[in-house]
Design brief:
3 helices; 79% helix; mainly alpha
């Protein structure tokens, strides 16, 4: 994992997963980080369409995990 672009891609994937986790926690418990995490995931606050928001969360999560897996496989 020596390529700067690849490292940045992985860092973005990790940040997206952190945002998903923040949204998961803050939707239930509240907190100021919720709006920032939603924004990173491309979801407006307040959430108007939960189905669309859920699709976005699933998409971002799948892409992040795929990017991390690809980087790890490439490092082997």
């Amino acid at each position: 994992m020596t390529d700067a672009a690849e490292r940045e891609n992985i860092q973005n994937a990790i940040e997206d997963l952190k945002s998903v986790n923040t949204v998961r926690n803050k939707l239930v418990h509240g907190g100021s980080e919720l709006i920032e995490a939603l924004s990173r995931l491309g979801i407006e606050y307040p959430i108007g369409n939960y189905e669309k928001a859920w699709d976005e969360v699933r998409s971002k999560t799948a892409l992040a995990l795929t990017n991390i897996r690809s980087a790890l496989q490439g490092a082997l």
